[in-house]
Amino acid sequence: MTHLDSESTQNKQLKFLNRASKKFSTGDTLALFAVGTFGLHILTFFLLFLIYGSYSQLNKKPPPSLVQLETGSAIKVAPLGNSDRTPQVV
Description:
This protein is mostly helical. The protein has a domain at about 1-60. The chain has 2 helices and 2 strands, in the order ααββ. It has helices spanning about 1-20, 25-60; strands at about 65-70, 75. Strands 1-2 form a two-stranded antiparallel sheet. The protein starts with a helix and ends in a 14-residue tail after the last strand.
């Protein structure tokens, strides 16, 4: 009798394990979706932080001061402000 009881108990446990592994419940699916979305938000925040850092580094660099001549060659000149113009500027 005890052998039969232990066998039926083990059979019930195996059925429970097989049934649970086949299908997710609605709560499990919603929880996985929430955790996945939160992970993507953290990744996006990290990427935006990197972009902000690169823009702040770009802000500290001096503006480029190359001028192309009418012959097609480029030369370096001193940077001027936006209101400083010379008569030679077209």
